[in-house]
Automatic annotation (TrEMBL):
Coiled-coil residues: none
Organism expressing this protein natively: Nocardiopsis mangrovi
Name recorded for this polypeptide: SDR family NAD(P)-dependent oxidoreductase
Alphabetized UniProt keyword annotations: Oxidoreductase
Transmembrane residue ranges: none
Pfam families xref list: adh_short_C2 (PF13561)
Amino acid sequence: MTAPADGAAKVAVVTGGSRGLGRIIVERLLGQGWRVATFSRSRGAFIEETAAAAGDAFLWQAVDLNEPQTLPEAVGAVVRRFGRIDLLVNNAGVLHQDLFLTIPMKTIDTLVTTNLTSPIVLAQACARAMTRTGGGAVVNVSSINAIRGHRGVAVYSAAKAGVDALTRSLARELGAVNIRVNSVVPGFFDSEMTTRVTDANRERIRRRTPLGRLGSADEVADTVLYLASPASSFITGQSIVVDGGITC
């Protein structure tokens, strides 16, 4: 990634930045001096507080990833505000557990649209902006469900596997214009998605994990930020698994 010619900070787009992993990524990027735009369905207290504290370095837009046709305009608003995009973190996603034989078509459509179609549309829109300013990086957040099969999450798993396949193909295609594309593949970590995990299942996961515990959102964010940094300047097309060894 090239630094802005005017000396201004680089610009990141982070989806789902109002809570959880996305919130941590937004906070840490702002702390490192980035200008940050984030999309989420609702504003919430964190967005209000960050907008007041970060001022012109922060932009929030109400975006529903189940409506991918709205995303190019949202990206356009980021470019109009900041003049460039250097990083996209495709973080937002939705998990719904349902048996494959009974899952409704509407739910299938929502899972695929939110977890795969919208990241594709966002990557295209952001990559187009990156080509005008010398390149950038895309970091897609996937899931270990794309690696190991689990009951009740077939559609979610398929969508996340698509994200990893997208990562590899885009790395091939966009490397020529200095855009790196990688994915982070989290295992089980404390988040809203794991709050419904029973104590018995949590203990089972802990026993099966070589490091003997669930991860934290900060540990996943560490890998995202590494892939966004100059320290990873020769890494592209990779899916980095952050799971404490449960898939090894």
